[in-house]
Design goal:
2 domains, 611 residues, seven-stranded mixed β-sheet, 8% strand, 52% helix, alpha/beta, Alkaline Phosphatase, subunit A, single chain
């Protein structure tokens, strides 16, 4: 039956149109992937093959329907994925292969499924001699989608801006008067109204044409033959099953889908953020009231948090890579300590940073020690403020998203919080943080935490395209080189302003060598994802005043450390008081827990294998 279905399918297919459309789509796919390769150079043969099969099935649909006298009934269904792809590609900055593959997988297979549904519906209506009105109801849905996507394309072309997450946030934050002014004034609402009228007229003209035609007067062969339906349905199910089993398509949903849900997430994030801020404010006020003092070392202490930096690609860790000229020189200084056995406690920023900045860590879950929840929830900012330090948070990451509300609540526990993406328009690079350091007022006691965008994927967007790089660096190496330049600028600033200590640590790494990024799922996790860099630099003044502390640092330099213990290291180095039960989590301690317990990651779920 399968062989006979193939023969009938070929006979009922306009072969030349099918091949022409498939070649055209393949050329477009190649051009888009060639563009994306500037930012995401990886190769994914399995997903590329699945996308090509989806495009092949879509082209076959055109070939079959072109022999039917009523192809116009299928036209909205056939052009829908094209409009969706064009809209999403120009409306969002798509620089990741998986998002592009997700478009093809979701949109073009969706078209095929709807095409099959229309065909079966046609057959049913013809068999029972119903009129077209029921089928028109189904088609109206598709036509409205076509209208929405076409208007989004027009809006982006005319106003150079479509509907994305930022626009959804703006809509959530606006009021009626502001929206009215924006629509009719800034956004030239009359042009948009005119465009809506034109395309609505075309849509309704199409509906009117369909309503004039009765299926009773149509030949029974206006829908594809059963063999054609069976053939496409069989192949579509295979592609869908393989893609779903791969699980990447379930993770990388189309960006339009995520944008539609963003309004719902935004409201929930605001509620959660406000709740966390209030809870943290109460905990902080209680702690400060009972622990007010002036303990700690005088001076400015700085923590720079990197993003997705793999130490294997840093020259200061691996001399084969010429990517960190500044840090190569820095590590040769006697007051700089580079840690070769530092690992991330997780591979997701939202899991790492809260543990890095609070007393809570993954080893507490695996011991019988009991702590008050309030003490574990307090951040490094809270302990510093209670001892008279001015605290600052400066970030080049998103302030509120559907995942980072906890990080943001910690950020707002500082005396001064700056998210530069809220204060600047357009793309923000890490060197754009430098002018905001001038907003830090000099203080005898200060704690500054800087959260970089770092080496975030896609790597080609983490640095300015005009930046001058040495030859023979790949995209990730360029991001590492640019990060080294940013660190150099920060160090110049803080050394000139008398910082006592500057520390750099990344939240997690990426498995760059195998092109897997960072993924905590057991079948995706790789040790490279947690091999991060960390170093501490101390001023001459700190060296003279606390020589024993530097000896402790030197003694723990080659020990295994996970970055959820950075909090304990800062508390120890700044000499801030902490409960005795928590002292063993500092690598500087004589009772350091990882001297007797194997280091862990993924929130304590996985023991880190030995080198």
């Amino acid at each position: 039956m399968f062989i006979s279905s193939i023969k009938k399918y070929i006979k009922n297919c306009n072969f030349y149109l099918f091949v022409s459309i498939w070649i055209f789509l393949s050329i477009c796919e190649y051009a888009i992937l060639n563009y994306i390769s500037k930012f995401d150079p990886g190769s994914n043969p399995k997903y590329t093959l699945l996308c090509n099969i989806a495009l092949l099935l879509y082209s076959l649909s055109w070939g079959v329907l072109s022999k039917k006298s009523k192809i116009i009934f299928y036209l909205p269904t056939l052009i829908l994925p094209l409009l969706m792809s064009i809209m999403e590609f120009i409306n969002f900055t798509i620089n990741m292969r998986f998002y592009f593959y997700s478009q093809i997988y979701h949109y073009y297979l969706l078209c095929i499924i709807w095409y099959l549904f229309c065909s079966i519906t046609y057959a049913f209506l013809c068999y029972y001699k119903y009129t077209t009105k029921y089928f028109i109801y189904f088609q109206n849905i598709i036509e409205m989608f076509c209208l929405c996507f076409m208007l989004s394309i027009i809006a982006n072309a005319i106003f150079n801006g479509g509907i994305n997450n930022d626009a959804i946030v703006a809509i959530c934050q606006t009021n009626f008067n502001e929206a009215w002014h924006y629509f009719w004034g800034i956004n030239h609402g009359m042009i948009l109204i005119l465009s809506i009228s034109i395309f609505s007229g075309l849509i309704f003209a199409f509906i009117y044409y369909c309503r004039k035609t009765s299926l009773r007067k149509m030949p029974f062969d206006i829908f594809p033959s059963p063999s054609s339906i069976f053939m496409i349905f069989f192949l579509a199910i295979i592609v869908f099953s393989i893609g779903w089993k791969a699980n990447m398509y379930a993770y990388f949903k189309p960006m339009t889908y995520n944008t539609i849900l963003h309004a719902k997430h935004y409201r929930k994030d605001i509620e959660r953020f406000n709740r966390l801020i209030e809870e943290r404010r109460q905990l902080t006020s209680q702690y400060i009231a009972s622990h007010q003092g002036s303990n700690g070392v005088e001076g400015m202490f700085v923590l720079i948090i990197g993003e997705s930096l793999d130490r294997r690609y840093m020259g200061c860790y691996n001399s084969q890579h010429k990517t960190t000229p500044f840090q190569n020189e820095l590590k040769t200084q006697s007051n700089t300590f580079l840690f070769p056995r530092i690992y991330a406690c997780h591979v997701q920023t939202t899991k790492v940073v809260p543990m890095m900045l609070t007393a809570h860590n993954q080893y507490i879950q695996n011991t019988n020690d009991s702590f008050q929840e309030s003490e574990l929830s307090l951040s490094l900012f809270d302990f510093a403020r209670s001892n008279g330090y001015k605290t600052y948070w400066i970030s080049n990451q998103e302030k509120i998203s559907n995942t980072n509300s906890i990080i943001t609540s910690i950020a707002f526990s500082a005396d001064q919080t700056i998210f530069i993406r809220d204060e600047r328009s357009g793309k923000c690079f890490d060197h754009d943080l430098l002018p905001y350091l001038e907003k830090i007022s000099p203080s005898k006691r200060a704690l500054v935490i800087i959260h970089l965008s770092g080496n975030h994927y896609p790597y080609g967007l983490s640095y300015p395209s005009s930046f001058n790089f040495p030859p023979n660096l790949d995209i990730y190496e360029k991001s590492v080189f640019y990060n080294d330049y940013v660190i150099n600028q920060f160090m110049d600033y803080f050394q000139k302003h008398g910082a006592m200590m500057v520390a750099y640590v990344s939240d997690h790494a990426d498995a760059v060598s195998i092109g897997k990024g960072h993924d905590p799922r057991p079948n995706k996790f790789n040790k490279e994802m947690i091999e991060i860099p960390m170093w501490f630099w101390f001023s001459n003044e700190y060296q003279r005043s606390y020589p024993n502390k530097l000896i402790q640092i030197q003694n723990c330099q080659n020990k295994a450390i996970t970055n959820d213990l950075v909090f304990n290291m800062f508390m120890d180095i700044m000499q801030l008081p902490i409960s005795a039960e928590l002292e063993k989590y500092s690598p500087l301690s004589l009772d350091y827990i990882l001297d007797t317990v194997q280091p862990r990651t993924l929130g304590g779920q996985l023991i880190i294998p030995s080198p």
